[in-house]
# Entry
Amino acid sequence: MESNQTTYYKTPIGTAKITGNASGITAVTLTDEVFDTNTKTPEYLQNCVQQLDEYFSGQRKSFDVKLNPAGTTFQKQVWNELTKIPYGKTITYLAQAKKMGNPKAIRAIASANGKNPIWILIPCHRVIGSNGEMVGYAGGLWRKKWLLEHENPSPQQSLF
# Structure
């Protein structure tokens, strides 16, 4: 088993802790804790940091970072389905369950979404409740709202 390397990256919504190795990114988590983000980024994590930088600056709409999340076969299937949700779009948990061919598994799918270890790159923030409400985001609903607004900004209202 390869040992993971870690780096910290400052985002507009907190500090991202990025973990991975030659096999891919194993985790991206967000925290309110402040870490030194001026350290040298390990080679395996540089592409991820660059792509997150591009995402937050509005220049990137999809990621092509090699991912290697730890999880069950079912969780990995759920997370893979999440990567198919286009930038700026949302789907409901029920729609995700239907796309996976198992509408009765909605609770298990929602639970797997909640265990997603790679935030933003595996875009669980794009899944919303059936009534259109923002529900269930481990990083806090304010972060989910921020990410969705970042990806789909509402047009400025004209005063005239």
Observations:
- Helices lie at 43-56, 73-82, 93-99, 106-114, 141-151.
- The mean pLDDT is 90.
- Residues 43-56 form the longest helix (14 residues).
- Residues 16 and 30 are 4 Å apart (CA to CA).
